[in-house]
Protein backbone atom coordinates (compact mmCIF):
# COMPACT_ATOMS: atom_id res chain seq x y z
CA UNK A 1 0.00 0.00 0.00
CA UNK A 2 1.03 3.56 -0.55
CA UNK A 3 2.27 5.63 2.31
CA UNK A 4 -0.34 8.01 3.76
CA UNK A 5 -0.18 11.58 2.47
CA UNK A 6 1.23 14.23 4.80
CA UNK A 7 -1.41 16.35 6.60
CA UNK A 8 -2.82 19.09 4.37
CA UNK A 9 -1.92 17.34 1.07
CA UNK A 10 -4.37 15.50 -1.12
CA UNK A 11 -3.65 11.80 -1.65
CA UNK A 12 -2.20 10.80 -5.03
CA UNK A 13 -4.72 8.39 -6.58
CA UNK A 14 -2.15 7.20 -9.13
CA UNK A 15 0.30 6.18 -6.41
CA UNK A 16 -2.43 4.34 -4.53
CA UNK A 17 -3.59 2.51 -7.65
CA UNK A 18 -0.03 1.63 -8.61
CA UNK A 19 0.66 0.22 -5.17
CA UNK A 20 -2.46 -1.93 -5.33
CA UNK A 21 -1.53 -3.15 -8.82
CA UNK A 22 1.97 -4.12 -7.70
CA UNK A 23 0.55 -6.01 -4.73
CA UNK A 24 -1.92 -7.91 -6.92
CA UNK A 25 0.45 -8.59 -9.85
CA UNK A 26 1.61 -11.87 -8.36
CA UNK A 27 -1.97 -13.09 -7.98
CA UNK A 28 -3.28 -12.60 -11.53
CA UNK A 29 -5.64 -15.38 -12.42
CA UNK A 30 -6.72 -15.94 -16.01
CA UNK A 31 -9.97 -17.89 -16.24
CA UNK A 32 -9.52 -21.39 -17.63
CA UNK A 33 -12.14 -20.92 -20.43
CA UNK A 34 -10.23 -17.86 -21.70
CA UNK A 35 -6.99 -19.87 -21.89
CA UNK A 36 -8.74 -22.73 -23.67
CA UNK A 37 -10.35 -20.27 -26.11
CA UNK A 38 -7.01 -18.61 -26.88
CA UNK A 39 -5.39 -22.00 -27.47
CA UNK A 40 -8.21 -23.10 -29.78
CA UNK A 41 -7.98 -19.84 -31.73
CA UNK A 42 -4.25 -20.31 -32.25
CA UNK A 43 -4.72 -23.97 -33.29
CA UNK A 44 -7.53 -23.01 -35.70
CA UNK A 45 -5.42 -20.24 -37.30
CA UNK A 46 -2.46 -22.55 -37.86
CA UNK A 47 -4.72 -25.29 -39.28
CA UNK A 48 -6.48 -22.85 -41.61
CA UNK A 49 -3.16 -21.47 -42.88
CA UNK A 50 -1.83 -25.01 -43.48
CA UNK A 51 -4.96 -26.10 -45.38
CA UNK A 52 -4.87 -22.94 -47.53
CA UNK A 53 -1.21 -23.51 -48.30
CA UNK A 54 -1.69 -27.17 -49.24
CA UNK A 55 -4.80 -26.62 -51.39
CA UNK A 56 -3.74 -23.33 -52.97
CA UNK A 57 -6.97 -21.69 -51.86
CA UNK A 58 -6.97 -17.92 -52.33
CA UNK A 59 -3.84 -17.96 -54.46
CA UNK A 60 -3.54 -16.42 -57.93
CA UNK A 61 -2.05 -18.98 -60.28
CA UNK A 62 1.55 -18.19 -61.18
CA UNK A 63 1.89 -20.68 -63.99
CA UNK A 64 1.26 -19.09 -67.37
CA UNK A 65 -1.85 -20.27 -69.11
CA UNK A 66 -2.63 -20.53 -72.78
CA UNK A 67 -2.14 -17.17 -74.48
CA UNK A 68 -5.32 -16.06 -76.27
CA UNK A 69 -3.93 -12.78 -77.64
CA UNK A 70 -0.56 -11.08 -77.66
CA UNK A 71 0.83 -7.87 -79.06
CA UNK A 72 4.19 -6.13 -78.95
CA UNK A 73 3.80 -2.46 -78.18
CA UNK A 74 6.07 0.56 -78.41
CA UNK A 75 5.35 3.52 -76.18
CA UNK A 76 6.62 6.84 -77.48
CA UNK A 77 6.63 10.19 -75.73
CA UNK A 78 5.30 12.72 -78.24
CA UNK A 79 5.03 15.74 -75.94
CA UNK A 80 6.12 16.22 -72.35
CA UNK A 81 2.89 14.68 -71.04
CA UNK A 82 1.58 12.67 -74.03
CA UNK A 83 2.22 9.06 -75.00
CA UNK A 84 1.64 7.34 -78.33
CA UNK A 85 1.00 3.58 -78.28
CA UNK A 86 2.27 1.92 -81.47
CA UNK A 87 2.04 -1.68 -82.71
CA UNK A 88 5.69 -2.75 -82.92
CA UNK A 89 5.19 -5.06 -85.91
CA UNK A 90 3.09 -2.78 -88.14
CA UNK A 91 4.04 0.69 -86.92
CA UNK A 92 0.31 1.45 -86.63
CA UNK A 93 -0.65 4.01 -83.98
CA UNK A 94 -3.16 2.35 -81.67
CA UNK A 95 -3.93 5.35 -79.49
CA UNK A 96 -2.38 8.60 -78.31
CA UNK A 97 -2.96 9.53 -74.70
CA UNK A 98 -2.91 13.28 -74.22
CA UNK A 99 -2.01 15.05 -70.97
CA UNK A 100 -5.02 14.01 -68.82
CA UNK A 101 -5.93 10.73 -70.52
CA UNK A 102 -5.06 7.08 -70.01
CA UNK A 103 -4.59 7.38 -66.24
CA UNK A 104 -3.65 3.80 -65.33
CA UNK A 105 -1.87 3.06 -68.61
CA UNK A 106 0.25 6.21 -68.54
CA UNK A 107 0.91 5.83 -64.81
CA UNK A 108 2.16 2.29 -65.38
CA UNK A 109 4.35 3.48 -68.24
CA UNK A 110 5.97 6.06 -65.97
CA UNK A 111 6.95 3.22 -63.63
CA UNK A 112 8.37 1.19 -66.54
CA UNK A 113 10.18 4.24 -67.92
CA UNK A 114 11.76 4.86 -64.51
CA UNK A 115 12.93 1.23 -64.25
CA UNK A 116 14.48 1.45 -67.69
CA UNK A 117 16.11 4.79 -66.85
CA UNK A 118 17.63 3.29 -63.69
CA UNK A 119 19.17 0.57 -65.88
CA UNK A 120 20.50 3.06 -68.41
CA UNK A 121 17.87 2.39 -71.05
CA UNK A 122 15.07 4.41 -72.65
CA UNK A 123 11.34 3.75 -72.86
CA UNK A 124 11.69 3.35 -76.64
CA UNK A 125 14.61 0.86 -76.39
CA UNK A 126 12.55 -2.30 -76.97
CA UNK A 127 8.87 -3.20 -77.25
CA UNK A 128 6.70 -4.35 -74.37
CA UNK A 129 4.66 -7.51 -74.72
CA UNK A 130 1.00 -7.40 -73.71
CA UNK A 131 -0.68 -10.80 -73.33
CA UNK A 132 -4.20 -11.94 -72.50
CA UNK A 133 -4.61 -15.54 -71.41
CA UNK A 134 -7.64 -17.75 -72.12
CA UNK A 135 -8.60 -17.66 -68.43
CA UNK A 136 -8.96 -13.84 -68.65
CA UNK A 137 -5.71 -12.88 -66.92
CA UNK A 138 -3.51 -10.27 -68.59
CA UNK A 139 0.22 -9.59 -68.29
CA UNK A 140 2.52 -6.79 -69.40
CA UNK A 141 6.15 -7.86 -69.88
CA UNK A 142 9.21 -5.67 -70.22
CA UNK A 143 12.07 -7.54 -71.89
CA UNK A 144 14.60 -4.85 -70.92
CA UNK A 145 14.03 -4.92 -67.15
CA UNK A 146 12.45 -8.35 -66.82
CA UNK A 147 9.42 -6.83 -65.07
CA UNK A 148 6.18 -8.78 -65.41
CA UNK A 149 3.01 -7.06 -64.26
CA UNK A 150 -0.12 -9.19 -63.73
CA UNK A 151 -2.72 -6.59 -64.67
CA UNK A 152 -5.66 -8.24 -62.91
CA UNK A 153 -4.01 -7.29 -59.62
CA UNK A 154 -5.11 -3.70 -60.28
CA UNK A 155 -8.80 -4.47 -60.75
CA UNK A 156 -10.98 -5.20 -63.78
CA UNK A 157 -11.21 -1.63 -65.06
CA UNK A 158 -7.45 -1.10 -65.06
CA UNK A 159 -6.86 -4.53 -66.61
CA UNK A 160 -9.37 -3.68 -69.32
CA UNK A 161 -7.57 -0.39 -70.07
CA UNK A 162 -4.56 -2.44 -71.24
CA UNK A 163 -6.56 -5.29 -72.84
CA UNK A 164 -8.20 -2.74 -75.16
CA UNK A 165 -4.73 -2.17 -76.63
CA UNK A 166 -4.82 -5.74 -77.98
CA UNK A 167 -7.57 -4.84 -80.45
CA UNK A 168 -6.17 -4.71 -83.95
CA UNK A 169 -7.99 -1.60 -85.18
CA UNK A 170 -7.31 1.82 -83.62
Structural class: alpha+beta
Mean pLDDT: 79
Shape: elongated
Helix content: 25-40%
What is Rg? 31 Å
Number of helices: 4
The helix-strand sequence is HHEEEHEEEH
Describe the structure.
The chain is 35% helix and 22% strand. With 170 residues, it is an alpha+beta fold. The protein has four helices and six strands, in the order H-H-E-E-E-H-E-E-E-H. Strands 3-2-1-4-5-6 form a six-stranded antiparallel beta sheet.
Annotate the secondary structure layout.
Elements: H1 13-24, H2 32-55, E1 67-79, E2 82-87, E3 93-97, H3 103-118, E4 128-133, E5 138-142, E6 148-150, H4 156-163
Antiparallel strand pairs: 1-2, 1-4, 2-3, 4-5, 5-6
Give the tags.
22% strand, elongated, 170 residues, 6 strands, alpha+beta
How would you sum up this structure in a few lines?
With 170 residues, the protein is of the alpha+beta class.
Amino acid sequence: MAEPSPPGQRPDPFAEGLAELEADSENIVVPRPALIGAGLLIAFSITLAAVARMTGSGRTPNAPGVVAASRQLDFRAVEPDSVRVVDHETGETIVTFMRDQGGFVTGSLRAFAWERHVRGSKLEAAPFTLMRYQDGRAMLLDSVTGMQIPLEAFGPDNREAFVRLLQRSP
